[in-house]
Amino acid sequence: MTALSHRPFLAYFITNSISLLGLWIQKIGVGWLTWQLTESTFWTSFVTLALMAPAGILGPFFAVWAENWNMRRASIVLKFLMFILASSVWYLQFLELHSVYSLALLSIFHGILSAMYHPVRLVFVSVIVEKKFLGSAIGLNSASFNASRVIGPSLAGFFIFFFNLEITFLISALSYLPLLPFLFLVPLRDRTTSKNQEKNFIKNFKDGFQIALETRIISSCLFIVFVNAFFVRGILEIQPTIAGELLLGSSTNLSIITVTAGIGALLSSIWTSAGKLKKHNLIKLLFPMLIFGFISSLIMGLTSNLILISILFLVMGFSTTMIGISTQTIIQLEVEDRFRARILTWWSSLSFGSLTLGGIILGICGEFFPINFGIILMPVFGFTIYRYFFAKFN
Q: Tens of pLDDT along 95-151?
């Protein structure tokens, strides 16, 4: 039996997955609108990635701060504020008042809320299910989050192509509504917290970092997350820029590449969610998935063929999602309840921070050189760093 047989978790899994899809739909929507307004690779990459940058910078601090929060209250407040911001994005588009600055500002604010919610989300799943379902729930929660990062953009591409940006932003805003009533009603189990957390903020922050570094399997996973996010996911996250530069700025082409990446992520999520992959299987998959990502991004920099780029996005969607799910699941299973938020937020900080930096660097390169230059160099540097440092790491 999996955690989906536990009704409260099933309801949470469905409603939270819908809200996560809405977040990533908005991300691609604001990125595509920015490209239409500016045709700048820098601004398009910046606005697209602004949703994730705060998690990379502020995530570890929010994690320590959030450890003793009331998880129900925090979830309700943060999700409601996200709904308000997403509605603001839609309303400004409805009035045709958006500028690159309004898009950047709203994306940064939404990113700050997401950074605050991330440790809450990671802990919340552990207080919904009984302990016998925890391993399954962790895997499913990881699959939901990582798949939504790629499936959401594919849905955004679909809505942009068949409807328009106004409808896309409206769907993004409405996606938060199913989760809110559930958060008021779901029964939660008690969890272990630190009574002295408020007095020892700096100490707790350092403790989380120390545990992450000293636990070999966790530190190895975090290093792989960094390499994958910076050198592969950074490319995957700037699909509006790639559609604009390599594929002649067509919304049709944007929808195709986002959908194929989403299919790859969905296949990866289905495979891992089946529950047949144990921790040792997940560990063995990490290096092959990283290599698939490197090869796909290298080839992408050498072509402007839509069909080939779509296939490469499918492979990258599969491999990067597999790495995200696997590393998050491994770390979740390794840490105690009282350290879960701060340790797992190092995962999210490395992931979001690295892909944000990688994407911004690619965007800057695109202002001065053809962007495929940067797309070719990223996997070359990534593989070199992985081989050199991971040999020392172990």
A: 999 999 999 999 999 999 988 888 888 778 878 887 777 777 877 887 787 778 778
**CB proximity list for 347: less than 8 A, separation 6 or greater:** 221, 222, 225, 327, 328, 331
Distance from C-alpha of 136 to C-alpha of 166, rounded to nearest angstrom? 38
CATH dotted code for 3-185+210-393: 1.20.1250.20
How many other CB atoms sit within 10 Å of the CB of residue 67? 24
Q: Please tell me what DSSP assigns to residue 303.
A: -
Distances in Å between the Cα of 319 and the Cα atoms of 107, 228, 268, 275, 312 are 27, 9, 8, 18, 11
Residue 315 pLDDT more than 90?
yes
Q: How much is the pTM?
A: 0.76
Residue spans per domain, the chain:
3-185+210-393
- Residue 346's SS3 state is helix
Amino acid identity of residue 37, one-letter, is: L
Half-sphere exposure of 271 (CA within 13 A, CB side): 17
- In contact, 268 and 317? CB cutoff 8 Å: yes
Q: Supply the DSSP string of 95-158, one letter for each residue.
A: TT---HHHHHHHHHHHHHHHHHHHHHHHHHHHHHS-GGGHHHHHHHHHHHHHHHHHHHHHHHHH
Other beta carbons within 10 Å of 332? 22
Residue where the block lists tokens 């949470």: 12
Contact 92, 107 (CB under 8 A): no
Residues in the chain: 394
Q: How many angstroms separate the CA atoms of 214 and 218, rounded?
A: 8
Phi, psi at 320, each rounded to 5°: -70, -35
